[in-house]
Amino acid sequence: MKLTCLTFLLSLSLMVNAQNNFKATQIKFERVEKAYNEKWETLKKFVLSGGYGDQFSMVINAYKTEGKLEIWLKNNSAKTYSLFRTYDFCAHSGTIGPKVFEGDGQTPEGFYYVNVFNPMSNFHLSLGVNYPNTVDYARTGKDRKPGSDIYIHGNCVTVGCIPLTDEKIKEVYVLGVEARNAGQEKIPVNIYPFKMTDGNMKKYIAQFPAQANFWKSLQAGYLAFEKNKYPAEIKEVKGRYLVTKEVKF
């Protein structure tokens, strides 16, 4: 029994050290250190006053038509997320509808997560998104390349990414580092063509009927989050998204 407890405590200690080391490693980079020096003191005051504490998780929701990127946070001991900040895109690329192939200039639509923290980006700082996933590959087909390197980044140029200003990406990046450092392995990044209300669905499907089935699969995830303020369990099944479980409290 004692050996089991010691093994558990050792594993827990290693996990905590690995998490703390993430921030320590990131902050060694000049741009990240500067972002913390400029942004974290003020951000932390709002984080604490919002009840998110020192350990929080994060969800990113982006809406292409509205040009808005939302940051949702929750204290790690809380059950649901609440909206913390909203940032404007500072440039747009393509139109609504998912990214299909390399070079089409489209920003993806779908359910993703942050898979790269790039402190030496050509666009100041950037958070990479795990595009393409299996749904994207199925859409692209065998004879074309789906493209890659989709980021939320600074500067104001884009050929498919989500650009914020350098000042805004500093905040988003720091919040991401804090969430990752607190133990969140995958920060969800949900990219929608628009706020997926029934009214908007009717409006935009009339203009883009070929996207109807795909957008309906996105809407199911969107509505589950709107209702429960917690991401639904979403699986990639035969080239489409499927909500397999809503987390309700």
UniProtKB/TrEMBL annotation:
UniProt keywords (A-Z) are: Cell shape, Cell wall biogenesis/degradation, Peptidoglycan synthesis, Signal, Transferase
Annotated signal sequence is 1-18
Cite the SUPFAM superfamilies for this sequence. L,D-transpeptidase catalytic domain-like (SSF141523)
Q: Does the keyword Zinc apply?
A: no
Q: Name one GO molecular function term.
A: transferase activity
- Would the keyword RNA-binding be found if you checked this record's keyword annotation? no
The record's Pfam families line, in alphabetical order, gives:
YkuD
Which residues are annotated as active site?
Answer: 153, 161
Q: Which GO terms describe its biological process?
A: cell wall organization; peptidoglycan biosynthetic process; regulation of cell shape
Q: Where is the L,D-TPase catalytic domain?
A: 58-192
> What pathway is this protein a component of?
Cell wall biogenesis; peptidoglycan biosynthesis
**Entries under InterPro entries matching the protein:** LD_TPept_cat_dom, Transpep_catalytic_dom
CDD domains xref list = YkuD_like (cd16913)
Report the PANTHER family cross-referenced here: L,D-TRANSPEPTIDASE YAFK-RELATED, LD-TRANSPEPTIDASE
The text of the family note is: Belongs to the YkuD family.
What protein am I looking at? Answer: L,D-TPase catalytic domain-containing protein
* Biological source species: Pedobacter miscanthi
